[in-house]
Each structure stands twice: as structure tokens, then as C-alpha cells.
Amino acid sequence: MQTDVMDREFVHSGHVGCPGCGATIAMRFVLKALGEKTMMVLPACCWSIIAGSYPQSALKIPVIHAAFETGGATATGVRAALDMLGDTETTVLTWAGDGGTFDIGFQALSGAVERNENFIYACYDNEAYMNTGIQRSSSTPYGAWTTTTTGRDWKKLRKKNIVEVLVAHRIPYAATASIAYPEDLLRKAQKAKNMKGSRFLHIYASCPTGWRIPSEMSVKIARMAVQTNIFPLYEVEDGLRYTINYKPREYLVREYFRLQGRFKHLTDQDLDQIQQMVNEDWELLLRKAGERA
Amino acid sequence: MIMNESANPNPLFMPRTYLTTESNKTGSWRFARPRYDEKTSPCSAACPAGEDIARIEMLATQGLFKEAWETILLENPFPSVCGRVCFHSCEDLCNRREFDAAVAIHSLERFLADTAIRYGIKPDLERRTPRKQKIAVVGAGPAGLSAAWFLTLLGYSCRVFEASEEAGGILRWGIPAYRLPLTALRHDIKQIEAQGVSILTGKPVTAEMLEALKKDFDAVFMACGHGLGMAMNVPGENLKGVGEGLDFLRQIRDGQTPACNGVSAVIGGGNTAVDVARSVVRLGGKALLLYRRRRRDMPAFDPEVEMALDEGVELQELMAPVAVAQEEEKILLTLQEMMIAGEENSRGRIVPDHGKIHQVRVDRIFKAIGAQAVEPWHQPDAADRDMLRLTHTVLNRRGTGAVLVFGGDLTNATKSVVHAIASGKQAAIALDALFQEGVEAVVPRMEACRVGDGQSLSMEVYLGGERRLRNPHVVRYEEINTDHFQFIPRVTQPRLLKEERARSFEEIDLKISAQLAMKEAESCFNCGICNQCDNCYIYCPDTSVILERDTQGRHINYDYCKGCGLCVVECPRNAMSLGEETP
Ligand SMILES: Cc1cc2nc3c(=O)[nH]c(=O)nc-3n(C[C@H](O)[C@H](O)[C@H](O)COP(=O)(O)OP(=O)(O)OC[C@H]3O[C@@H](n4cnc5c(N)ncnc54)[C@H](O)[C@@H]3O)c2cc1C
Ligand SMILES: Cc1ncc(C[n+]2csc(CCOP(=O)(O)OP(=O)(O)O)c2C)c(N)n1
Ligand code: SF4
Ligand code: SF4
Ligand SMILES: [Mg+2]
Q: Considering B13, B188, B384, B565, which has the largest number of Cβ atoms within 10 A of its Cβ?
């Protein structure tokens, strides 16, 4: 990684993200990689607030605040306008939460990437609708408490595998990344920047408030998600070529779950079941990457 | 068609931001306050010389070998010697040990010293302005030379009186060349002389001379070592063929090749015994090492015992000599077999196993059961209650004459090279405090330059260097964020083959390359000190760690820092702390 890339900064202090906010770390990293020639489309999410209320901005690049479900469509329009102006240099980046990506913005995203629109779509995943008060999304993992999956009605459905959905569109580039692995994240963002067509980054961004974790643990937890294979780091080119970027020493998922208040109701049995689900997903990924027959 | 918006009769209204969020001083949210807070590494507190090991390895990682070497010199004028013969208690407490293996601090020290020799590097060390007091040092062993070195850096003029023809004490006349070659020792001593220490060799100080020195100098540092072997107190021990191990080693170091044909019995379990036995083997003889306790109770450094056995030394444990007799050409040695009656101070307590008497016929016997001061006046009077007894030195400032200070083996509980160096440093600091501020200042000044919570003293701290800002808290393994480190196999010290070893006095431990050394140094966690990794900057969600080119390299902008604590947790080496926010 070039050190000057890590040294440049596009996020102002004074934003109103919660202490320890993973989404803010994710933003800092991605913009360091993409640089100032970037235009951002920002559908409703925590970042709509973090980016500042009028007339303030927390970002040093132009941002268009867009309707919740329009991340894919608005970016399509911005790209088209830039192309008409002859500006091929500027990168168009949609920055959306998991709710805005997995659920409500899904059709606009699917439509845009099906057309192979020339933009980067980055989804920072905090596994719930955090901005409106921790409602469950289709990204919320199995086992989690949210304000809409409370008490014994904790979420008993799997998290949607969004990267595989994007891969099924055969887009040029889809990758996972984590705030706990800055070098990997910056490399992927730079790689995406240097490609054309639809590029998708799924960035794991812990949320101290919604996950009920201490603020200083947010990077540690994100790192554990990778170390336990809960959130593997990999990339897929043209919907075909899988590369697993990091082979963890496969810590047990138990450690990860035990540290978070949103999982505190889970029993040992539940955790065993989750471990099996994680193992299953990992095996599947290894097969796709050609590392298992 | 592209339309110019300003030409539009009904222009589109787009609200545009024109301020940054920097007008929100989010620092007011904070209830915990991160700060840069460099701490003490366990290795440095375990090093009796208090070397700043975490920093030394950091500099070595960056290829700054001269700076790393100078950092050693600030606390220890004998890197070339200690890189070879120090027992490196630093490595025993290395935090990395709990992760995979201790950092090879010892091999790195030797590497840095060798590199300085190879490139003829001269150190740039600060020296205080000259002071008027003059100090005499009796004995040019590691204790005496260290005291002279540190006193010289503190601005005093020192003169060292040494009885032997060459300086070094046991380093020159005891420890064999296969562990400490002359060139290595001479380099360190030359370095010390180059700082302005004058050493007069062939000048034994007598009791009368000492009285004269006390008149001519403001202080005299007594560092005569333990040069006299102890008696076994068994009949026949003064017969011909029974000699002192220390004398034998001295002959070899003097260039002689004493006869070693047949079997030599070596009595003892310390460094001297092991070195005598290994030297016998090298001179073509057979060595039988007899120790009255078990191998694991031997005071000698275990790796040395291991190598001695590899080289062909035979060890018999639990054997105590009871009589020596002449039997024709041979010597008849009668031994009482001992048994373990319990454990005390982690050593076996032994009693005779009655009835079990052995006899061996040998060609000669070397005694190596310990040593003592050659003259009673070399030592502080144990009964004198007015002396100031410090951890490694004893001060006597009776009356108006010169201050008399005793150090090195004469006063140290643990007799080793690095403890001798620690003693020399302590004497220098004590004398400086005494001369500059009076006797009451000695103990508080000493306290103020302790490394961590142990007994080691730092000259850099005493001199008011950067290191004084370190928090004395000794970093524990649990305080290292090991997520930021990978397992790396520890460098293996290359050595001569045992076949090569058994025939010559060539140095056993070979050099390691600069590449290997840097790799090894890189494995150091740098416990408690900032190595500019920038993790704090990288992970800050609030862009509140500001890079700048000051001494730290970055600072926290408290106008915006919300006190999330990520920087403190993600600092791999505990160079930061999270404190309470005081309104
Ligand atoms: C064989 C052997 C092997 C050892 N191996 C190790 C080892 O591997 N690692 C380790 O850490 N320690 C080792 N030690 C211990 C270590 O060498 C001593 O603890 C250390 O040298 C003590 O230093 P010193 O300066 O107090 O005394 P010394 O090194 O004994 O020096 C005292 C000096 O004073 C001089 N002197 C004495 N009387 C007078 C006088 N009246 N006038 C002028 N000069 C005088 C002597 O000639 C001598 O040069 C070993 C010791 C021995 C004997
Ligand atoms: C059409 C529409 N429905 C609902 C909302 C209210 N809303 C704003 S942000 C948000 C949650 C966004 O969740 P996610 O995309 O996961 O981002 P996060 O807040 O978690 O960062 C919701 C429901 C909206 N702005 N528009
Ligand atoms: S890891 Fe480095 S600083 Fe820490 S104890 Fe070991 S040698 Fe010392
Ligand atoms: S995180 Fe790195 S740069 Fe920051 S204080 Fe710790 S060692 Fe220094
Ligand atoms: Mg969300």
C-alpha cells in the first residue's frame, strides 16, 4: 500500500457518528483509496446523518443525498451526466447501508448492475436498520436481537448472502472487505476504481450501538468475524473467478458471539448450530474457489 | 443537449452545503480520554543494566544499527562482551515467549556490537560538562570499567588501577576464548578508553597505596573481584596435582597450554567448573565434573552445561570430595555420595548417603567451588552499620576523606558480568548525586531512575533523556494486541559443530547476517513504545489522530476525539492509555 494513500483524508472531524462507529472507519478507508475525483450517491442510512446536516458536510467530496431505494438508479443518472460532460475520470460511488442494499434498494441495484452500469456500489454492512433504531434487515444474522426481533423472537433466519446475489449478475467485480483489514480493503477499493462496469464492495462495519458492544471493541469484533469465517474475505471477478484473500486459523464462532450484547440470549446449543452453519458456508466458498473438490 | 443552469428562467434549486462538520466540537461527548503513554518493557526491567531493549529492537528493525548500538551504550559499555557471555535474563521475561518464542535479544546484541566493530562506528554520546572531582577505580573488571565509563560521561575524571598486564578482569583472565574472544573484549575496552577513561595496567593497589589514593582522589571505587579460590577443607587438598580452576583458566588465557593428559577431576558446579572442564577437553584431556548437588541445581548457565556434555565432559552428580591422596603417579580422590533430603530455595538440600563412598584415580584435580576476595580490605566491613548499602554497591563516607565505594563481585549477590556493570552504574549515579546534591539525594535519585518496578537503573533516565517520560508500568502479555503480529520462527544461533568445538578455542557462536538480525528484531512487540505503526491514526473513526512531524509523530485532537478508545485497543504494543476524562 502506498503510504501517501493512507495519509490522505476525506472525512472531516466533527461528524455525528457514534463513538467507535465502524461505518465511519469504512468511509475513511474507501475514500483514501478512491481519492478526490469521486462523486457519492448516498441513499438514506446512518451515513446520511453522519455526512452532516445542511449546510454542513463531513466529506471533502461531492455527495448527493438520495432516496432510500434509489442507490442504483441515482448512480446510473450521475454516471450518465458525467459521461455527457465528457468526464470519464470521476468515479461514481454509491454508499449505502445493508437495509438500503439487501432490502429496499435491491431492485434498483439489481437493475443497475444487470445493465453493467459503470459505478462502484459500496454497501457498509452493520446488519440492521440502525439509523431508525436497530430494526432487523435481511442482512441481520441468524441469532440476533434487534428492536423488531426481541426476546424469544430473536431472528431465526439466515443472513442473505448478498455477494453471491451480485455474483449471479456476473458483474466484473464483487468483493467482501472489513474495517479490521485496512490493507485488504484499500487494495480492493483501488482495484475496483481501476475497473469499468458495475463493481460491488460488501464492507463489514461494526456498530457499537446496535450490536451492544463497547466502542473500543468495534475493530476487534470485525476482525473476529473474519477470523471465525463468519465474514470471509474474498473477491470474485466476472462472476466466475473466486479468490479467498485470507485464510484464518478458524477460531470458534462462540468467542465472537459471546462478546456482543445482541447475542447474549443464545444458548450453547444455538451456538453449536451457528458454528455448523458457518462451517457449511465456508465449505461452500472453498468449493467455489476450487479449493475443495 | 447540455443546458446552462444559470440561463434557465426557472433555475433548479439545489441546496448545497458550504460548511464542514468541524464546527461541531464532538470532543464534548468524551468521558474517556486516550493519550500517548509509553511504558516499560519487561525485558528492559529484567536486564540488570536496564537496557532499552524495546527501542533497541525497534531501531534494529529499521536498519538503524548505529543508533541501536548507541542505545545499548547509554546503559552498558560492554555490548560486545554481553552479546556473548551475558545470561540474558531479559529473554526469560520477554512477552513474546507467551506468543511463540522469546526474541533473540542476546544474538541481536552481539550482532549490533559486531556491526559496530566491522564498520568502525564511533558512538556520538553526550557528555556532561567537566566536574572537579577525581575518582580512582581499583580493578579493571566489568564493574570497575563500567563505573569509570559512566563517571566519565557524567563529567568526572577517572583513573583505573589494574594489577594485571591487561584490563578486563575475569573477562580477560577467566572466561575462555571459545565464549569470549580477545578481539571482542578489546573492542569494548578500547571504546571505554576512547571516552577518556585512563587505565593503568600492571599497577596492583596495596593497602598503603589505597590510603594514598584516598588522599589524592575524592572517591575510590573498589572493584577487585573475587580472585581467590575457596578451600574444600578436606585432607590432602594441598598436594601436588591439586590446583585452582581459576589459575588454570588464567594460564590458558595467558597463552600457555597446561598439560591435560589423562583424566582431570573438576570439582564444582558453577561457571568456573564448567569452563575448566571444557578447556580440559579442548587441550586433549578427559574431564570428570563432580558436583555435590544435581545437574539442575548447578549455578552454571544450563546451555553451557549442555554444550559441555556434548563436547565430552562427563558429569557425576551428588558427589562430594572427602579426601585426596597421592597414589603413585595418580591421585586418589575419595567421594561421598550425597542424597536429596528436601528442597530449599529451589535447590536440593543434600545430606551424605551414608555408606556410599566412591574412589576415583585421576591425574589431577581442579578446584572450582567458588571464590572470594583476595584481601579482607577489598571488601566493605560487614559489621559497619554506617555504610550505605545499595542493591549493588556499598558506600562508605566516614569522616572527611574520600568516599569509598565497593562494587562488582565484592558486593553483588548474583555474580555475573551484567550485575558487575549494574554495580558500576549504581556507583556512578550514587557518587554524582552525592557530589552534586549531598548524601540525602542518593536514594531518591536512584529511585527516580529505576526501570519499571525492578532494581535496574537507567543512566538515560538519570541524565534526563526522553526515556524518563516512560510510564514505569511494565507491559504484560495480555496488554499486547497480538492480532497485529504473526508467528515467526525464532532465529537459531549458528554454532560450530561439536567436533570442531572439542578441539579448539575458536569462538563457538557464529555471526548472524544483517538480514536475519532485522527479521528477528522485527518480531519484537516493542512492548510499551511507539514504533510509528500508525494504527491509532488508521482506526480512528473521528479523524482525530493528527499526523505531524513532531517527536511523537502524531497527536490527538481533543476538540473532536469522542473517547471511543479504539486507538488504545488497536495500538499493538500498549503505547497508549485510556484515562478518565476530567471535566
Ligand atoms: C570462569 C568464569 C566464567 C564466568 N562466566 C560468566 C559468564 O559467562 N557470564 C557472566 O555474566 N558472568 C560470568 N562469570 C562471572 C563474572 O565474570 C564476574 O561476576 C565478573 O567478572 C565480576 O566483575 P568484577 O569487575 O567485580 O571483578 P573481576 O572481573 O574479577 O575484576 C576484578 C579486577 O580487579 C583486579 N584487581 C584485584 N585486586 C586488585 C588490586 N589490589 N589492585 C588493582 N587491581 C586489582 C583484578 O586483576 C581484576 O582485573 C564467570 C566467572 C568466572 C570465574
Ligand atoms: C422509503 C423510506 N423508507 C424508510 C425510510 C427511513 N429510513 C431512513 S434510514 C433507514 C434505515 C437504513 O438502514 P440501513 O440501510 O441498513 O443503514 P443504517 O442506518 O443501518 O446505516 C430507514 C428505515 C426512508 N428514509 N425512506
Ligand atoms: S517482545 Fe520485544 S519489547 Fe517485548 S519483552 Fe520481548 S524483546 Fe522486550
Ligand atoms: S498505534 Fe502505533 S503509532 Fe499509534 S501509539 Fe501505538 S505504536 Fe504508536
Ligand atoms: Mg444497516
A: B188
